[in-house]
Amino acid sequence: AIRPACDSTLLFTEAFYPQLEAVKKRGIQPVLIGGDLGMRAKAFEYQTPEGIWLLGSGINNSVPKAYAPEYVTNFDPDQLLEVRYQDGQLEWQFFELGEGE
Length: 101
Fold this sequence. Notes:
Layout: H1 12-15, H2 17-25, E1 31-34, E2 43-47, E3 53-57, E4 79-86, E5 89-96
């Protein structure tokens, strides 16, 4: 198991990515899911050259544009990430917040 520490001095590519690569080499498909990305990206899905999936989503549209800090750069519709594990398969899909209501 990978148990990352919340240490602001650690860099992901040095501290955690090698652990994900080791998991992949053992024949297990690593999928890293992050949240709270809505200020920059509403939905993020990327597969590295090593075959590791990086996923993320986030919301921020409750922040009025007039009062938003400068680091909030994305006001596209908020996205939710739905993850399903069934019959040994992990699947995911992004949905616009409020979609289907």
